[in-house]
Design brief:
This protein is of the alpha+beta class. 40% of the residues lie in helices and 37% in strands. The protein has a single domain, classed as Roll (Bacterial Protein-export protein SecB), CATH 3.10.420.10. A four-stranded antiparallel beta sheet has the order 1-4-3-2. A hairpin with a 4-residue loop joins strand 2 and strand 3.
Length: 157
């Protein structure tokens, strides 16, 4: 009976579903944008979030907003939210944040990258290939900033 209890307590991290939660593309200056030879400048921003549900289910979302501009004109603006439904059970509390902030986004990123590339290509533009992201470094940087905030707040009073 103790073997069954040990098996029941094994950590579970399972992908239940990966899906596009939201997608938007605007190309307000077409067809003129296709006639221009100027290389656009890109502004790319990422956000990730996680929320829990009953029975050990978590939704993790990774959102990218990418804007291509030539001079003061928007060539295109694309926003994609790639999400995943994960089952996570029997994972120690101290490991949940890294799992939701590093592990799950690392799984979602290749799908997000493909969706953005496909969407920009279908809009008539060259594919926008997102560069790899080091989610661990971002996670550690955010944790360091959070740890420094209470100290900053105490020194300003």
């Amino acid at each position: 009976m103790s073997e069954q209890n040990q098996e029941a307590q094994q950590p579970v991290f399972a992908i239940q579903k990966i899906y596009v939660n939201d997608v938007s593309l605007e190309a307000p200056n077409t067809p003129q944008a296709f006639l221009e030879q100027e290389q656009p400048e890109f502004n790319i921003q990422f956000r990730n979030s996680a929320r829990g549900f009953d029975n050990g289910f978590y939704e993790v979302s990774l959102t990218v907003t990418a804007e291509a501009k030539a001079e003061d004109r928007t060539v295109f603006l694309v926003e994609v939210t790639q999400a995943g439904l994960f089952q996570i059970e029997h994972v120690p509390t101290e490991e949940m944040d890294p799992l939701l902030g590093i592990g799950a986004p690392s799984i979602l990123f290749p799908y997000l990258r493909e969706t953005v590339s496909d969407l920009t290509t279908r809009a008539g533009f060259p594919p926008l290939l997102l560069q790899p992201i080091n989610f661990e470094a971002i996670y550690l940087q955010q944790r360091a900033q959070q740890a420094a905030q209470p100290a900053d707040a105490q020194t300003t009073h």
